[in-house]
Amino acid sequence: MKTTPKAYLQITLDIDVANRADAAKVYTTYKEPFLRGISGAISKELLIRDEDVQVLHGFSSVLEAEAYLESELFNNDVVAGLKDLLKSEPEVRIYSAN
Fold it and tell me: Edge-to-edge strand order for the sheet containing 41-48?
């Protein structure tokens, strides 16, 4: 039985169209390590719009979503991989789902 997320972490990234393939590589590279190694991780989706790129992470709880933002995977790998591609600071939101 598939687990339904109880919290979502939405990260909105302002990335030029020319750099989106590189951003997608970062997403692809770290999706499985996220799902396998981060406590409470349930899902991770890449959403592409004309104006931005969003990564939507599903978690078992808000606390686990918050903890991911402090993790080595997020800070040392994901953030480092995206930093040269970003036009501005990412917008980070956490939602509780009922």
Answer: 41-48, 53-59, 7-13, 91-96
Class at the top of the CATH hierarchy for domain 7-96: alpha beta
Token duo for residue 51: 């104006």
User: How far does the chain reach from its first CA to its final CA, in angstroms?
Assistant: 18
pLDDT tens readout for residues 47-92: 999 999 999 999 999 999 999 999 999 999 999 999 999 999 999 9
What b-and-e string marks burial along 30-59, b requiring 16 or more CB atoms within 10 Å of the CB?
bbeebeeebebbbbbebeeeeebbbbbbbb
Domain boundaries, given as residue ranges, for the chain: 7-96
> Hey, what are 14's tokens?
């302002």
